[in-house]
Each structure stands twice: as C-alpha cells, then as structure tokens.
Specification:
With 172 residues, the chain is of the alpha+beta class. The chain contains six helices and four strands; from the N terminus they run αααβββαβαα.
Length: 172
Amino acid sequence: MEDAEAVVSLCNAGTRDVGGMEKDTVARRRLHWQRSGFHLDSDTQVAETCTGDIVAYAAVKDTVGTLARIHGDFQVHREHDSVMLRDRLLGWLEHRARASVLHAPEGARVMLTHNVLAHDEARKQDLLRRGYELVHHTLRMRMALSEAPVDSIPEGILLRSAARSACHFENH
C-alpha cells in the first residue's frame, strides 16, 4: 500500500503523455488493491531505481468463470522506457497469467487482455510483437459543454427517472 502514491503518479504520467489525461487517484488505486481476490504481493510488480524511485509497474487482475478473463496492465516511466524493460514486465504478466489457468474451470476459454489507447503505438507494437491480437476497438467521445442543452423531446414524450416508489406502481 505504501507504493500507491508512486504508482498513481507513474500511471498518470503515462496516460497524460499518451492520452492527455490523468485517470487514476491514490484512493481508487488503494481500493483496487484491497478488493477481494487481488493479492498485492503476487498480482503486482514494480521496477525501481537504486534510489527507490518506482519507474515501472505491472498488475494482473483475473476473473474466473466459464470465460476466464485475465487483464494485464503495465506502465513504464518515459525517462526509463526501453523495449527490454517493457518485455520483462510483459513476460512477468504472461507468466503470472498462466498460473491463473490452473484455477479456471475445465473447458474454460482463458485469455489475457490489455487495454491500449489507440495512439499508444509503442505499447501496441510491444503486444503485437509478443503474439497478441487486436480484437476490439472502442471510441471514447466527448463534447465540451459551454451551455445547457436545448430540449428537443417530441411532444407526447415524457422523460423521467427510472426510480419509482412502490405507491406509484400500485396506482397503475
């Protein structure tokens, strides 16, 4: 838990460099590390300098069911980035993920996945080089809101919350 702040700083620097945003917080990271089934000692790796600065991080999250999905994530600080370090992290992730196969139900389809921003070319190439396949594209779209939206709901249509009280249902 004591590495949470350094890991968040590292991960946010990486997402800021590639995607222009910071998406992690120390509170959220600590919550993630405390969730059931996650073991900080076996599900994470960090690389640090001789002065103790964390310059790389990797984590594995696995869910076991009829489809065993193992999610890998890694980040390397740009000042310490190298193909060799990224490959070492990916090698650890893949080794750790293979250990999860032992816990999957017989006949389960087991896969290791990574989420990669579309313009993170280095990470994409690292994964492709190691035999990963591109299987899904997602678009995150946004709009700057400088003014309130104009209501354009057709006449005769009412928008409301999906929450109704029991009394309201009894009257219908």
